[in-house]
Design a protein that fits this description.
α2 runs parallel beside α4. A hairpin with a 2-residue loop joins β4 and β5. The radius of gyration is 36 Å and the shape is elongated. The chain is 49% helix and 16% strand. It contains four helices and six strands; from the N terminus they run αββββββααα. By secondary structure, it is of the alpha+beta class.
Length: 184
């Protein structure tokens, strides 16, 4: 590699009628083959890969080609954005899936309680623990930004309303009569 770099950094004096030039490194070199034609002299800079090539006019009859090793360029920001968004997509997908799974389990348990004709009030306690776990998962998803806070509030409200509907259905809870505003 050092030998190919030494070849590349040295100046080559070539006749003005240059049609094409091909610079290649050794077989195990890190450089890619470079080639250009005599019309490359109109360009200020020709670069590809790890080397930059630029024609230099030193005298009217002679031209020299200078090849210099340059540092590696930074990774493309679009590629980095794509990697970051894919990582976030997978993370958010897992969080949303966990929220849906917890909600589904709670709703199924509540459906079983509704269909049970001889259900006891103590049978709601395991469902309440499941609701608390679902609330926790929803709150964590909101905290990390996977769910919007209004979406989380709506989902928690849905669970609470279903639980209250089961309690009303079995007579374990009687809603208080609403106070109506006096009409004047």
């Amino acid at each position: 590699m050092a030998a190919s770099m030494a070849q590349c950094v040295s100046s080559l004096y070539l006749p003005a009628k240059l049609k094409s030039l091909s610079l290649t490194g050794t077989a195990n070199s890190a450089f890619k083959p470079l080639s250009f034609s005599s019309n490359a002299s109109s360009a200020n800079l020709f670069s590809t890969g790890l080397a930059s090539v630029r024609p230099v006019q030193s005298s009217p009859n002679r031209r020299s080609i200078v090849c210099e090793a340059v540092t590696t360029k930074k990774p493309d920001s679009a590629a980095k954005r794509a990697r970051q968004s894919e990582k976030r997509r997978v993370y958010n997908k897992a969080k949303k899936s966990e929220v849906r799974t917890r909600m589904k389990k709670v709703l199924e348990a509540l459906e079983v309680l509704v269909k049970k004709s001889d259900a006891q009030p103590e049978e709601v306690l395991p469902v309440e623990k499941m609701i608390a776990e679902a609330y926790s998962v929803i709150d964590k998803a909101i905290k990390v930004g996977t769910l919007h806070r209004n979406t989380g509030a709506r989902r928690k409200s849905r669970l609470a309303r279903r639980k209250k509907a089961v309690e009303i259905h079995h007579g374990w809870y009687t809603p208080s009569p609403t106070d109506t505003a006096p009409t004047v």
